Structure formats: structure tokens, C-alpha cells
Amino acid sequence: MLEAVGLCKRYYQGELDVVAVDHFTYAFPPGLTAIVGPSGSGKTTLLNLLAGFDVPTEGEVRLDGRVFSTLSEDERAEVRLRHMGFVFQQWNLIPTLTALENVAFPLMLAGHSLKERTERAQALLAAVGLERRAKHLPSRLSGGEQQRVAIARALALDPPVLFADEPTGNLDSASGARVVELLLAQAQAGRTVILVTHDLELSRKADRILHLRDGRLMRVETPSAGLTRAAQSL
Amino acid sequence: MEVLALVYRNLRARPVRSLLTLLGIVVATASMVLFLSFGEGLRRALGAELSRVGPAILVVPEGAEAFSPGYPELRPETLEAIRRVAPSLGIVQVIPTAVFARGGFDPSSSFVFQGLPAGVTARDLYPNLRLAKGSMDPGDWGAVVGGGVARRNNLDLGKTLRLSPQVTLRVVGVLERSGGLADNFIYVPLPVIHALLNTGNYSSILVAIEPGRRAEEVARALEERVSGIDAQTTGDVMRFAERAVRISDLVRFGISLVALVVGGLLVANTVMMSVYERIREFGLMRALGAKRRFIFGLVLLEALVLGLAGGLLGLLLGQAASGLVNWFTLREVGLALSAVTLRLASFALLVAVVLGLAAGFLPARTASRIRVVEALGRV
Question: Under CATH, domain A2-233 is a member of which superfamily?
Fold first, then answer.
């Protein structure tokens, strides 16, 4: 389980002390958790800290009970590789690699053989409906297809935690719906999916919504869709 | 697969820039190969030349350099002294020679006359020389011309050579080309050179020893018993020449280093620009779990590929240029002055690889230290 305990991030801009994340404490259970808030509320900074892209000024991030935020950069990279998957709003794919090679990239970092990673990447692309686009470079894929390749890549090493930062931000509604559907499927499969968005309609599909303002966790909401899914799973 | 694909496709994604960088290394490596090939060629030519010389020992004035006869300084008394000790040292033949050179700016107007005593022919000095036409013996007022000089200057039997207002010689023999330096000499009677230079001295004295004698021992004994001489064996000459060639190798390598440094800076510039353009890509890789050393290796590999490819192509170009030089020098002086040996080829590739690695180090270090949040614009 991913936990944030008393997480703070301060920036010093000249003499100005900017608090981007302010004593954020929360344990993320499996399922879809949406983090919402207006611009500048600290959503992206919080995700940076949770994913180990950045280190907190105070507090810590734990993964399965082990403190993760105090590890070295390379150790945090290793934790990300094995335990986390990422889908960003843009700059998601390596432009010089094909869709298949992009999906196989984390498998290569983890030391899997060429045969293993090719087979796994092909299966993942098929799962997101892109088996016919395996040999295409990202520039030949639509925005929605690129996001689906990113989801396939995020699942390559079967990580327990999935981060999605505005994954539908640049997509038309049909492509966005397909991406959301894939993320929801992962949440239902028991993964911890953390979705950062300012799209309130999208957030209503989550199991819980964390409302952020000025870097603080203001309240946790359980929307009806989440309740319905919880009831269905009982 | 993905790593090599990344390197290859990134270089191909910016074809003009990659090509220009490659060209820089190709030119740098080719110029180094060509410069250093002269040293290798000289070593090879010298070895071949020495193997063509008949007598085992060359006597020159003390302190003189091998193969640079200069003004005749060996006096007739020295010749007599050598002849006196000859029987006790196993010396079977003593041949005094004098050299007169008339220089020009190109080989076709340069002539080297080697004066031989009566009864001695060019073949006594260079056993592999063969007569094409006429006589091997120049007689009193004749000249036997080497195959190279005969071809370059259309010298044939009966033609006259005017060495001074008082001295005119007639060509009495023409030699076949043997592929050595001896093809460029004109063999004349020793008194003619003496008359031209107004001296009775000799440039060098060639000493042949009986079979079974060790040239080194005879040379050292000769130096002990005859004052004012250096007795050089082919080994001595090779050692001396090796020292000289090595010094000139260093000088030529120093010159080619300039081109190499420029080539290296080109690679560094290309790879650094590529790193700055791909900051987001490296940030993404780091976000996905790539360690610093992976990014470092990736960028270094790119520089290495440029270095190695440039090195290989440069080697080929250098070899072609060396072939062109040899075609010219073989035609003009009958010698292949340039040689691209396995040793030189390996050295050139090694330099190109080291160049690639050195040029890629700083960009690789920069790329590996990129912060994920900054690279992905997530600040």
C-alpha cells in the first residue's frame, strides 16, 4: 500500500516561502483514487512526491510499509520500475521507438530477454486494442492511441500502483472514454490507481476523491459510482 | 534491441547533422592514418632497401648519419688503414664510393651520381640489379643509369650527361627497374666524382665480410682499429632509422592531433545538442525507472557509434589516400613511401573510439544528471 505521512514540499522563491504540499497524510487503498483541485493546488507536486520524482521537505512516502522517499535517486528509480506505472498527459512515449518497443522498454530495464519482452509487449498492446499498431512510431499514432500505448507500457511489469496525470487532458471525448475505461479496469483488478485531474466529471468515476486546496487535503469524498462498484464487488 | 534502436534512430532522425559530424571524424581519422602511414612506409622501404645492399658494413665518417653521404670526408689514408686490417677481420672486399647529388625541386630534375672504383659495378653494391642493355661497367668516361632515372629522363644508350663544363659522360648501360632506391642512381667512375668535387676523399666505404663472420663484431673491431670512422651494420642503420622515424611519427601525430581534437569537438557538440533536445525523453526514461548509468551509457554509446563509424570510414579513406601517394611516389622515385599496416589501422580505430568516448563523456554526464521533474516540466 502507498502511504503519505505528513508530506510537505516547500519552495523558496527569493524571500518568499511557497508551500506546495502542506502536511498531506493519506493511505491509498486499492481502487481508483482521484486527486482534484484547482490550478496551483499542489496536485502535480503531490504526484511528484508520491512517485519519487522529487523528495519531500518534510514527511515521508511509504510503499508496503517501507520508507521510499528517503532512498537515493537510483533506488527510487528501481522502486518506480518494479512497483509503479505511469500515464502522463503528454510526452508519454519515446519518439524514436515503435509502440511495441515503448511497451517493452520497462521490461528491458528490468532485464527480461528479447523474446519475453516482445511476447509480453504484444499481449499488452492487444489488451488495449493496438496490436495492429505495434510497429508504428508515436508520431504515426493518434493522441488516444498514444495514451493507450502508455497504459500498456505502465502495465508491463504488472505494478501494484498506477499513476495517471490528466490522462484524458488532450483527448477527444471518445478517446478519453476508452482511456478511462482501461484505467477503471485496472482499478477493478485490484491495483491502486491514482488519477490526478481537474475534470470533475471524470473524478466522479473514482472510488474516492481527494480534494486539494493550497497543498492541503481538504476532504475525502466517496462518489456514488464508487459506492456502486464497491457494492458490486461485495 | 531497444538501446541500439534508440541510438541508431536518434542518429538517423537528424541525418544532416549526424552526417556532418561523421564527416568530421572521417577526415580527422583519414588525415591521421595518412600522416602516420608515411612512418610505416619509411620503415618498410628502409628494411627493403637494406636487404638489397650487398656488403654488410657501411663505413662513414665518425659522427655522420647513415644514408646521408654529404661531402666526401673519408680520406685515402682511412681506406688504406681499413685495407690493412681487412685480412685479420675476415673482410673480403672494400669498396670506396663517393656521391655527387644535383638537386631539383622534383624527382625528374634531381640526379644522384655514385662513383665506383675501377672493376666494381653497381651489382657489387646492390646484387639484385639487372642490366637492361649495354654494359654494367661504366669504363673511364661512361655512366650506367638506374631503371627509374632512365625512364623518368628518357636516358638511353649513347646519350650524354653533362656534369660540368669539363665533365661529360656517355650512357653505356641501362639497368632494369628493381623497385628500390638504387633505380634512382647513376653509376659513374669514382675519378669523375673526385674531379667534380676536386677531392680525393670518399663519402662512404662499403665492407663485405666472409660468410660466417658476424657483422656487428667486425664493425666494432673496425671502429677500434681505424680511427675517425663509424662502421654501421644494417642493424645499426635500422635502429638509428627507427629512432628517427619514431620522432617523426610523434611530430606527424602531433599535427594530426589538431584534426582529431576538432573531430572530437564536433562529436561533443552534436551529442550535447542532441542531449538538450531530448531532455524530456531522458526525463521520461528516468521516470519509468531508468537509472543514471543507463542514460549515461546510452548517450556515450551514441558518441561511440559516431566515433567508431567515423573511424572505420576514415581508415578506408586514409588507405585510399595512402594508395594514391604510393602510386605517385612509385612512379616518381620507385618507392612506396606510405603503408597502412595492421598496427596503424588498429591504432587509428583505437584513437577514434577513445575520441568518441572522450567527446561523449560530458554530454552523457549532463544527460544522466537531469532531474525528472525539470525534464518533464513538472515543476
Answer: P-loop containing nucleotide triphosphate hydrolases (3.40.50.300)
